Amino acid sequence: MDKSIPDGNTLKRKIGIVTFLIFVLSLIPLLLISRYDHSSVDDYAFGFLTAQTWMKTHSFIQTLYSACRQVDVTYFGWQGTFSGLFLNALQPAIFGENFYMWTPIILLFSFVIGTLMLLKVFLLDYMKTDKYNFIIISLLILILSIQFMYSPVEGFYWYSGGILYTFFYSLTLILFSLVLLYLKSDNPFAKIFYAAFSSILGFLIGGGNYTTALTTVIILFFIMAYHAIQKNRHAIMLSAIFTFSLAGLIISVTAPGNAIRQASVGHPNAIKAIILSFVYGAYSVCNSTTVPVVIAWLFLIPFIYRIVRDSEISFKHPLIFSVLSFCIYCSQVTPPFYALGLSLPERLINIVYYSYCILVLMNLFYFLGWISKKIEGQIFCNKPNWKNVIQDMLSIGRRYAGQISIVMAVLFFCTSIGLCTVAKGTDGKPQFSGLPTSVSAVQSLLNGDAKTYDTEANQRILAYQDTSQKTVQVKDYSVKPYLLCENDIVEDGSDWRNQLVAKFYGKESVQLKLSNR
Questions:
Q1: Residue 80: inside a domain, yes or no?
Q2: CA dihedral of residues 291, 170, 344, 337 (deg, nearest 10)
Q3: Residue 83 belongs to some domain of the structure
Q4: How far is Cα of residue 487 from the mean position of the Cα atoms in its chain?
Q5: pLDDT tens-digit readout, 422-446
Q6: Most C-beta atoms within 10 A of its C-beta, which of 35, 68, 161, 367?
Q7: Beta strand pairing call for 509-513 and 421-424
Q8: Is 495 a member of any domain?
Q9: Domain boundary among 63, 80, 95
Q10: What would the 3-class secondary structure string for 12-61 be?
């Protein structure tokens, strides 16, 4: 080996350590700001029965029973997402508002665990790569997913929105990890465990948000169909997992409450929903492929190429894989377009973006794998010798890996900050938007907005808990941190948001007094 070229493992270890440190440092402000998080909107609606039960009995068993009652009431009166409703009824603030700080911790770690688990199985068990490649690729995907998500507050800091979307998306990642482990394992007891746990998760995911439930069923169907066509013995158990997932989705879709909710929105149109799904899918891919994201993909290409070059997978049909993955990507927005028309909630756009990061990664693996097999087999033109050209490029890249990594890191951070916009706020001070999630958290912590918001929220709660007052008027927040303030009550006491808060605290009316009035 040319001694001027650094050892590959040493380079990857250093890059892996740096990536790990950046990821950990990026999580710290997201966790620190969680102490200032508070309930809002649907947290009060879904947590009403359980909060009342806990306050009266302090019995966790009775509270679980009330959560089941909440599922029954909502299933027949508004929507059918039964497993999501059950978890929503157990939002942390029912045990006391100070417990709401656990919301971002639960959602962040479930997302991190789900992503790491899926990529661990894919990279280490299937692609047979080493731990350094796993650390670099998986943590960079997590950094992209968390830092550039559409609405961090609805993804991680608002329980009702985050638990139904981010959490169930994370469960889906775990489900497919288990399915892949089932297909890989030779241990009969392990296979039974993977299949059983996958079936349970599939059923529960079917009762979560319709986007994740439908996408899960579609992917499971293709996996099952592929093994059935191959006359593989795994097809039977895969069909069982698919059936459990489909059963959960059917139970959710056929809920009587869905018809009531649909009547308030309008008549659905299936053809229009499908067309809009493909249009939005193309827009979403373009919108998500920002400059820092492109830099991240370019940075990963050499790592991925080396992995697929040594893989035994053939990667024969890149176009079919790309088209199929794009169709699956688009299918995520078909349910909301069908049920809600052109409206897409931000919490849903979050999980569409999460899936973008995973699907682009998988497509990079497949296309680079296809290219590597073509080059290794010298199917491309022999003049120039593409195999030698690629080897020379990789050698140059390894020789200057440190310098290249530094340059790309600087470009990544500069272009990330470049995504933000600055406008004049209502108080005359600069107002930033579009900041990476962790930068936004640091800003709110350093300028005191997070603490101020927490103080004012606690003052409201004291007013709500004052049993001597049946009609409560609270002040508007003087600051509304981007990560913490999801939705607020208004001046009109008859507004649905105000009514939810009033019902939760046993008030006749709750109103907002604007600071300039």
A1: yes
A2: 120
A3: yes
A4: 20
A5: 666 666 666 777 789 999 999 999 9
A6: 161
A7: unpaired
A8: yes
A9: 95
A10: HHHHHHHHHHHHHHHHHHHHHHHHHCCCCCHHHHHCHHHHHHHHHHCCHH
pLDDT of 467-515, one tens digit each? 888 999 999 998 999 999 878 889 988 899 999 999 999 999 999 987 6
Say how many residues make up the chain. Answer: 517
Q: Which residues pair with 431 in a beta bridge?
A: 423
Domain count, the chain: 2
Backbone phi, then psi, for 374, in 5-degree steps?
-65, -45
How many CB atoms are located within 10 Å of the residue 69 CB?
14
- The tokens describing 394, both together, are 């990789």
Task: Quote the domain boundaries for residue 72.
Answer: 37-95
Domain presence at residue 219: no
- Determine whether 23 is exposed, middle or buried from the number of CB atoms within 10 Å of its CB (0-12, 13-18, 19+): middle
| Alpha-helical segments (H) within 256-345 | 256-265, 270-288, 291-309, 318-331, 334-340
Q: Contact, 416 vs 440, CB < 8 A?
A: no
Q: Is the pTM of this model over 0.90?
A: yes
The last residue of a domain, from among 95, 118, 142 = 95
Given pLDDT bands bounded at 50, 70 and 90, which one contains residue 362? very high
